[in-house]
Amino acid sequence: MKTSSRLGLALLALIILAAGGYAAWRNFATAGDAPKYKLAKVESGPLTAAVSATGTLNPVVSVQVGSQVSGQIKEILVDFNSPVKSGQVIAQLDPETYQHRVRQAEADLDAARAGQGVQQAEVSRARSSLSNAQRDYERKKTLVEKNFISPAERDTAQNTLDAARASLASAEAQVRNGEAVVRQREAQLAAARVDLERTTIRAPVDGIVVKRSIEPGQTVAASLQAPELFVIAKNLTDMQVETSIDEADVGRVRVGQKATFTVDAFAGRHFEGEVRQVRKAATVVSNVVTYIVVISAANPDLTLLPGMTANVRIITAQKDKVLKAPNAALRFRPSGAADDKKAAAVSPASTPAAAGTPGGGGTGGGNGGLAQLRERLVTELKLDADQQGKVDAIFAAMRDKFRAARDLPEAEKTKAQERNRAEIREQISAILTPEQKKRYDELASEAQAARSGGGGSGRVWVVGEDGKPKGIEVRLGLTDGSMTEIVSGDVKEGQEVIAGQTAAKTGAPGPRLF
């Protein structure tokens, strides 16, 4: 009897213990089903908006030295890195051919001058003949008046006088022609001497020889284009960076803006400069439009060398103290908020036009971001089933490109992301109706204004008293790609906002009691 009671009590205790454990497990599993959020604080501090790109270092003045005459290189008097002065002889072509041309031109000039002497003698003879004919005519005219000779003899003297005048005029014309021939021969001689002088190659400016393209004995042929012999950098202490800026960012670049850049040869060292010029000539490569921006680069110690690749960062806007929130918080949207149009606010990375990846992130491309952007497109543009399928195909095709861009260096990554954005905008626009495309362009314009520091609306989410996300409307300002200025809104410094959501835990099967 006692043994049965003990067994019954033990069995009852076991059942109670199992029931308690099961209840505790259920409570833990239910609590694990509640969503957990990644929180980030709203900060106060400086914010700098910048445009990143890559470019090439070049001298401000770089002169190509060529040859205007053809010939064989006889002598080279400078080499790479040789300092030169303006007018200094740096190379010599074989002058023999041009010396003979000068001698020939001198002989032609002497012959022309001799011919001119003969013509001048002919003028003197014609003038003498004219004088004799004039006197003879005057005598016969007087004799005719006195009836000593017949008028026929006077007429003959008149004809002789006219012929003498014509001969003088012809001789004088020959003299003028001879003078013209002499001037022509003088010009030919001068041209021959110039060509002879051009066989001596001189430096056009003070500077340093940065390139030599010829060797002694080489023949250069100057025809339609002068062959390049040397490249002389006028002043290597004053360099410039020529960088290509995407059309999406060039509107933010202004002359006089500060810039910094680095080169791979001096890792960790930052060089400073400023924007000197924004060239208006566009360059189109693979349907991507870029513009050349020239940035000054002081080089007093001659550290920088021509041709180096510079990673440039142009500061387009800067504020010393602003209220700022992470871009991840502006991109976050809780599930179930897809039908709220206000939740689809314009933020630096939440719109189709500004999305760095199909997921809307600046560098990522996760499925969560993809779902957010897809919801945005479906909601704002009211895509039908066929269009939604095409959007999914576009995102799937572009996903690898965005992931590849994420692993690039910062400067190259920015350019790659801009190219991907342009490509995805073009592909999405192609599947839209005119009305949808109009709305899509509006979203793109709003996003560009927000990315350019022109402001825009957005929404951040905080955890409410009931543990559920609560949206707060904010007005946005500058962005540096990771943080965005909050111009206005019910958000305070140090306040925690939701920047992401962890996956909810799924409950496991209950434990077996027996």
What this model shows, in words?
The chain is of the alpha+beta class and 514 residues long. Among the domains are: 52-59 and 234-318, Beta Barrel (Elongation Factor Tu (Ef-tu), domain 3), CATH 2.40.30; 65-93 and 202-232, Beta Barrel (OB fold (Dihydrolipoamide Acetyltransferase, E2P)); 96-198, Helix Hairpins (Orthogonal Bundle). The chain contains eight helices and 19 strands. The strands form four sheets. It has a six-stranded antiparallel barrel. Strands 3-10-8-5 form a four-stranded antiparallel beta sheet, with no helix packed on it. Strand 16 (456-463) and strand 17 (469-479) form a beta hairpin. The two termini are 26 Å apart.
> pLDDT average, as an integer?
82
Quick one: how many beta strands? 19
Please count the helical segments: 8
Reported CATH architecture of one domain: Orthogonal Bundle
Structural class given helices, strands, pairing? alpha+beta
Q: Rounded to an integer, what's the Rg over CA atoms?
A: 46 Å
* Percentage of residues in DSSP E strands: 25-35%
Largest sheet geometry: 6 strands, antiparallel, barrel
Low-pLDDT segments: 338-368, 506-514
First-to-last CA distance: 26 Å
Q: Per the principal axes of the C-alpha atoms, what is the gross shape?
A: elongated
CATH class of one domain: Mainly Alpha
Strand order of the largest sheet: 2-11-14-13-12-15
Q: Might you state the CATH topology name of one domain?
A: Helix Hairpins
Order of helices and strands: HEEEEEEHHEEEEEEEEEHHHHHEEEE
Percent helix among the residues? 40-55%
